[in-house]
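hey
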């Protein structure tokens, strides 16, 4: 089957079937993000970690916070802390957007390498409070979603050979 390509209707080939870009982007494998859930995203190109508003709400908008990472379990945590705690980061007094961005190139690279993520993609992960009375929010990085042109789908899992 021979297809044409134009700026208005690019075609893609998937397992021998030619589909329009719009059709591919609407497949069920893409997910909608639950705005009510805590979340975080990573982008290795910019070295950026984006903490979503609901994560900050779950933590009680602390003045200081820090990241906790368990490479063995592929779990990242964000917890409120004091100024003198190791790795403390200050949260601005006023957050005008629905998220807070922080640059941490070393941590982002380490997370990407540990999780076996592709460097050209951004990854988003839903989180949850560690316990109902806790302000620690944890993220299972094995449940990351890849962001493709603003849309999400489940990330391919790293396999040990």
């Amino acid at each position: 089957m021979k297809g044409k390509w134009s700026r208005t209707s690019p075609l893609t080939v998937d397992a021998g079937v030619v589909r329009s870009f719009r059709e591919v982007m609407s497949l069920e494998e893409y997910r909608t993000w639950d705005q009510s859930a805590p979340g975080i995203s990573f982008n290795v190109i910019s070295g950026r970690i984006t903490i979503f508003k609901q994560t900050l709400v779950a933590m009680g908008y602390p003045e200081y916070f820090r990241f906790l990472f368990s490479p063995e379990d592929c779990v990242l945590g964000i917890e409120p802390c004091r100024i003198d705690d190791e790795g403390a980061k200050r949260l601005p007094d006023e957050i005008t957007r629905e998220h807070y961005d922080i640059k941490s190139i070393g941590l982002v690279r380490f997370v990407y390498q540990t999780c076996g993520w592709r460097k050209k993609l951004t990854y988003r992960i839903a989180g949850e409070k560690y316990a109902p009375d806790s302000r620690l929010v944890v993220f299972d990085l094995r449940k990351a979603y890849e962001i493709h042109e603003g849309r999400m789908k489940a990330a391919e899992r790293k396999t040990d050979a």
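The radius of gyration is 18 Å. Helices lie at 21-25, 53-59, 105-115.
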